[in-house]
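Hey, quick one: can you model this chain's 3D structure?
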Amino acid sequence: MPQLFLLANLVIMVAYAAIMVSIVVPVHRAGQLGSNKLATATAMIFFSCAVGHGFHAVMAWQMLMALDRVHAHGTGPGWSSASAVWDACTAAVGIYYWSLRRGYGVLLQKGAIYIDPWGQRRLDEADARERAARDLAEAHRATLATIVEDSADAIIGLTPDGTINAWNGGAERIFGWPAAEALARPASLLAGADGAGQQADMLARMRAGEGSFSYEGRRLRKDGSPVDVAFTVTPVTDPAGGVLGVSVIARDVSAEKEAAERQRVVQERSDQAKRMESLGNLAGGVAHDFNNILAIIANYTDFVIEETRELPHVQADLAHVRTAVDRATSLTRQLLTFTRGDAVQLRDVDLNASIAEVHAVLDRTIGEHITLIAVPAPEPVRVHADPGQVHQILLNLAINARDAMPDGGTVVLEANVATLGGDELNMQPPLPAGTYARLLVSDTGEGMAPETAARIFEPFFTTKPRGRGTGLGLATVYGIVAEAGGSINVYSELGVGTTFRIYLPISAATGPAPAVASAGSPPHGDGQTVLVVEDELALARIITRILTNGGYRVRTANNGAEGLRVFQEHGCDLLLTDVIMPEMTGPKLAELARRERPDTPVLFMSGYSNGLLGTTHVLDEEIAFIEKPFTGGDLLHKVAATMHMTSVMDDR
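Sure thing. Here's the predicted structure for all 652 residues.
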């Protein structure tokens, strides 16, 4: 048995030594011999055990050598004191190892005592990847927080009962509440009387488990001003589906709504302009035929008046007829003005002078219960317009103001200069940016409701009792203003009054406005030949009679083609032609006639709103024109003036 004990201790000693070497060498190569205390303590245990078993092997060898002495003397060797001491050291190392293990909690790596260089490298790389992932996640969270905080939209968190628990910078900008003041307060802080019910309904739907949805509403800022907001609300739930809160994204849509409203108003203005144009075309067609009829009635009435001077009672009746014709003529003229087809005589007009003239007329006639005030501009304000039409604007508006104050009040006529930005919505029609002359007519009357103010420029629309208004006064004003390249603005409040603002382009001319020469008796003709081309036979007969009585020889034709044949066969000293005729128009006839005789004077006549005057509806100085209906004196004056103008041009 001693031999077996010796062999076993030698094998164990060698194994422990080999284990110690397998620990110490890699740890040393890894440079961890001083730092890896647990691996060093483990190596010390195996070293101590190897040495202890070495002592046991020595004792076994001594026992074999002393075996004979045991048999001879009956006594054997005892345990070596050195072996006992070493065993105590081994126990101490073991205690040290387990205290280290307890202090570490675990080994350096699961199932390992040391880490080799390649393992350490992989561990470092894994640790670096983990740190990079943590840094990226942290940067992502920081970026997301920055985006949420700096978002132009309000991002708000609510508890299920509506308490605010999240509030970003967009919410501060939209609603005006700092986060410190908004947090922990109810969301009803933002809702007015109209929005409270809407907000309560939203929270109820969220608590009931409804998913995300959107809606719009009006809320209140901190200063009490309203703001239109588009909301998107989404429930915040736990893994089990329970509602933890509500996420609200709110966008200020006030500017979008204002833009949409502006677009709607612009579209309405455009539609109204189209309606006015359609009505104008209709009115112009009516005026064309009506003027021909009025011309016949008026001139035949004048003929009868001249031939019945000895019959006073007939003269009185005819005077009533003539008055009715004049009223009808005035009505037709208003229609033509509204349709921008009235023949106008443009010149530079000082608005201050126009106000003074109208004030002088109205001051005696407007009524004692009305206070009339004129406020001229500090400096002359000139526009290029027909002075009669400027007077008509002021008179129509002032009379309307008087009618709106049956119990008395104040009317103010004012002139000044105003600058427009070009984006005003309540201008009819719209005007580009610039500086304009402005006429104001204000009253302290009954005012108008918005729906009434929206229709006042429509022809035949009136709020006056039947028989007291034609509905053409303001339509005429609109036509005059639009024709002059201007615009009109109306501001009215029920029970407060109304103000009309007329904007007109300022004339570039300086100096006093020229005066209009008054017409005397028409000159008598010297037998000159006038070719009259008129498709209305009754009117052609009247014109022939007027010209014949005025000293002219007259040839007539019923249409343009016949007129051209008569002109080619006989010629004439003046061509008097209607503008609108079937088959061949008056301008075309004049063009063909002047190809043969370029010096032939031409006088156009028309009662049609869109005839000779083209797109501008304004007479050129080189074109002679007389509007229907006209009197005999008007016609004779115009014929003489046209012939005179042509002769002057020929002399040049």
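One thing worth noting: The radius of gyration is 55 Å.
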